[in-house]
Write a structure and sequence with these properties.
mainly alpha, Arc Repressor Mutant, subunit A, elongated, DNA-binding, DNA binding, Putative sigma factor, RNA_pol_sigma70_r4_t2
């Protein structure tokens, strides 16, 4: 899923054209922040939040311990939140 697909999916739940535009813009901001994560953080973030995988599944898929996956996920979420903090 890319930013356009995610924006369209999210906007489909919005009731007005203005809400659809806001939803697409928000997805684009999040997507831009995610693209700036390290490769490992981005992979873990996407597997968890886009693919909806469990921590144990992610650990197995990427060959890391569950603790390491949790650490990467936590750092990724903090970085995305920090980048979006001034743009809400």
């Amino acid at each position: 899923m890319d930013a356009t697909e995610a924006g369209s999916w999210l906007a489909s739940d919005a009731s007005s054209p203005e809400e659809q535009t806001v939803a697409r813009d928000q997805v684009r901001l999040v997507w831009d922040a995610v693209k700036r994560l390290s490769e490992r953080q981005r992979t873990v973030f996407m597997l968890r939040h886009v693919e909806q995988m469990e921590i144990t599944e992610i650990a197995e898929a990427v060959g890391l311990s569950e603790g390491t996956v949790k650490a990467h996920l936590s750092r990724a979420v903090m970085r995305v939140r920090a980048e979006l903090g001034g743009k809400r």
